[in-house]
Specification:
about 220 residues; alpha+beta; Glutaredoxin; Glutathione S-transferase Yfyf (Class Pi), Chain A, domain 2; 2 domains; 4-stranded mixed sheet; 8 helices; 4 strands; about 50% helix; about 10% strand; globular
Length: about 220
């Protein structure tokens, strides 16, 4: 059986949601962050050389990286569901948006937040550049979600599962306001209405109200 090792308030919520959307049998093991530095506890770090969330075990397989885990679960247990295959309509869009989450969106969020901690003033030239990229990234997502209900088209795919954490739970680490982006907010409401997403968040983060509004509560 698949075992998902979930670190609280981390990217591993993606895999809980994926398993719920696919209707898979899996075991969920929850771990709390350390009180002193908010990092993973030693028993979690011991699971994988990188020690970062998520971590999936499946027999002898021990796998990290949420994108790799999504691909693995879909191909080995999900019969290819929630992915778009080569030759099918939307294949290129699927590849782009699947990798956009951790390749573009999440890095720019981390870059802006890190630079703001160093020097939040307008004199910080790297921060100005990062904020310009931030605006361009969010404008791109906003435009796309004004054209289609989900990133790849009419149906939810793993590309959506990859991106939602960065737009929701990740904002608890820095209170990013999404009010300038109404299409993104409408999208998050569609996501929040999905039974599989609600089940996943209740299992992964039972003490957390999903962060679906403009500003985290």
């Amino acid at each position: 059986m698949l075992t998902l090792h979930h670190l609280g308030r981390s990217q591993s919520e993606r895999i809980v949601w994926l398993c719920e959307e696919l209707g898979l049998d899996y075991e969920l093991k929850r771990y709390s962050r350390r009180a002193d530095n908010r990092m993973a506890p030693p028993e979690y770090q011991a699971l994988h050389p990188m020690g970062t969330a998520p971590i999936l075990t499946d027999g002898d397989v021990v796998l990290g990286e949420s994108g790799a885990i999504c691909d693995y679960v879909i191909q080995t247990h999900g019969e290819g569901r929630l992915a778009v295959k080569r030759g099918e309509p939307g294949f290129a869009d699927y590849l782009y948006w699947f990798h956009f989450a951790n390749g573009t969106l999440q890095p720019v969020l981390l870059q802006v937040w890190s630079l703001e901690r160093v020097d939040p003033s307008d004199k910080n030239a790297p921060l100005r550049m990062a904020r310009e990229r931030f605006s361009r990234v969010f404008a791109t997502v906003e435009q796309r979600l004004g054209e289609v209900p989900y990133l790849v088209g009419e149906a939810l795919t793993a590309a959506d599962i990859m991106i939602v954490f960065s737009l929701t739970t990740m904002r608890l680490f820095n209170r990013c306001d999404l009010s300038p982006w109404p299409n993104i907010l409408a999208y998050l409401q569609r996501i929040g209405a999905r039974p599989a997403y609600r089940r996943a968040m209740q299992k992964a983060e039972p003490d957390l109200t999903p962060v679906l509004g403009a500003v985290p509560e």
